[in-house]
Amino acid sequence: MEILRTEGLTKTYGNKETNKVTALENAEISIGQSEFAAIVGTSGSGKSTLLHMLGGLDRPTSGKVFVDGKDIFSLDDESLTIFRRRKIGFVFQSFNLLPTLNVYENIVFPIQLDGSEPDETFVNEVIDAIGLTDMKERLPNQLSGGQQQRVAIARALAAKPAMILADEPTGNLDSKTSQDVLSLLKVTGQRFSQTIVMITHNEAIAQMADRIIRIEDGHIIKGGEQND
Questions:
Q1: Range list of H helices, 8-141
Q2: Is residue 60 within 8 Å of 24, Cβ to Cβ?
Q3: Which CATH architecture has domain 2-222?
Q4: What is the pTM of this model?
């Protein structure tokens, strides 16, 4: 089953030929359910622009993004915000935890923000799988960087989104902790049949994914389709 698909995805900045910059051009990607895909590119290759399009954080100049069968840019801003909150989980290199909330409260906060009641059984299963059972009452400043990133992963999983977008999720971690966090992301993704799309410039980290999609100068050059 296809969870993510793009068609002719293009993003340009500037409105005159002299200062027009094409950050992304005709990007075509297809990613299936439960797949762990890594999008790899150097700084300035367009991978962050692509992530913003895939997550509905920025609208493209042209082209389409389908998430769980929905053309997300056919939605108005309010509807897109709601869709993004319900269908897309985010894991950033900055953990973005609320300092006054404990681990459990941080994990369920986005669900409550949507006006829903957390599935406590599922949330506790995620917390157990992520290795945080004994830390549910701790505040973020009582956690290591690796533990805070685990909370961010659990928060993304807990809402049962169609997919998780991870943007350089180990960028603020040392190499050993990075390997541990990525292994955990992969294992929990498999356990909960979660689709994961990770942006990274790190080749070693990318090798942990099921498929590597390469982007250069705003173009997908390899791995965009599931049978590439």
A1: 47-54, 77-87, 103-113, 120-129
A2: yes
A3: 3-Layer(aba) Sandwich (3.40)
A4: 0.89
